[in-house]
Amino acid sequence: MPELKRTLSHLCLVSVLMLTACAGQTKPDETLYQRLGGLQGVTTIVDNLLYELGSNEKLIGFFAETDIDRFRSKLIEQLCQVSDGGCEYTGDSMAQAHSTMSLDQSHFDSLVNDLIAAMDAAGTPVTAQNDLLSRLVPMYDEVMHPQRYLETDSPS
Amino acid sequence: MVKPMLCFLSLLCLGSAALAESTSKILGTSALSQLEGASGGGIVPWATIGGYGSEGEWGAAASISGVQVDDFILDTGTVLVGVNNRLELSYAQQTLQVEELASGPFDAVIQQQVYGLKVRAFGHLIYERWPQVSVGLQQKYNQNPNIAKDVLGADSDQGTDVYVSASKLWLHALGGRNVLVNATARYTNANQIGLLGFGNADGSDYQLVAEGSAALFLNPHWAVGGEYRQKPDRLSSVDESAWWDAFVAWFPNPRIAVVAAYVDLGTVALWDEQRGGYVSIQITN
């Protein structure tokens, strides 16, 4: 009996895992860009993010000299490219954009929190949020250590 | 025990509003408070540093938990401080109540204190390719060792566990959901995490044991998972089995985490098939 009880509880857990995996399935031909709501969805996410950043005391200082209109349009372009929306990002490389900021992990964490809040407010589905984050996270090293990338870009 | 702990938690709750330090870590990445006070799952310490303090910040957490299985109850209160997402200091007070010993020559209550230290060695839970790897110590003092030493043949009333944990959160990993995996190797001389003393008739008898956890985040607020903790079986008088749990964790916001679990502690001293429930509430500053 105890063995049965244990087996049942394990089966239960496995079925919960399988159900959630099923619930997360998406149409195979749909790009992330489409799941983010296309241009309108990505624009809403970026506008929400700017709103979050505007009240983020940790990060607002970095935008003192920023041309917000340009930042906004380049970020929309970048998120479109990253999510297979067929755009070409024409802005600075991540290393160039962050080269003078001396960011630490708390800045990166704080930005990720703001982006999640922006996506929540835009009603972005959780799986699309996770997908976008998983495509942005590989930029971590370049954002945090821009000098490594700039040195290799310019041969001396 | 539970009542003063609850009062303590509500005080902390009030205090945490006043102490609302600016902390930046992502929801859930403080993890939970495991039975011995370290940031982790319910029974396994993870490589995470407790609290929501990122680099240049600090965070604190307090928890109360109760395990109720067929023949005993284990209440635990914990506090921890995480600094710079690098260093974690923790304290746990465990109280084991054994129903059947209530009228006998031995302690029906066994109390133990655990002082913990954990340092993140390298890596990052989410952002870097390598998992986050931390090393930790748990210094344990059993206050009621008479059963363990006089009856069961344990060598000592205190001991030190050393462990290495590797944890990684994969984004968009399973059905679009995020998955956390943790593996821990522990070098320990504790019997039943120290509640039945340390070592045996042959001395301290340190052994290496393996522990693991896996969790699926259904969304940022809900996670389901399971844990396994291998145990030594060094006392000749009684058996000791591995521990299992299956849990549901809820992170409504960065201040609170609630966990409910089904636990299977196997054989504990004279009592076999010890299965039941585990509930824990954690407050974070």
From TrEMBL, chain A:
Keywords: Heme, Iron, Metal-binding, Signal, Transport. Residues 1-23 form the signal peptide. One of its GO terms (molecular function) is metal ion binding. The keyword Phosphoprotein does not apply. It comes from the Bacteria. Heme binds at H98. It holds the Pfam family Bac_globin. The keyword Heme applies. This is Protozoan/cyanobacterial globin. It comes from Reinekea blandensis MED297. The lineage of its organism: Bacteria, Pseudomonadati, Pseudomonadota, Gammaproteobacteria, Oceanospirillales.
TrEMBL record, chain B:
Pfam families: DUF3034 (PF11231). This is Putative secreted protein. Keywords: Signal. It comes from the Bacteria. The lineage of its organism: Bacteria, Pseudomonadati, Pseudomonadota, Gammaproteobacteria, Oceanospirillales. Residues 1-20 form the signal peptide.
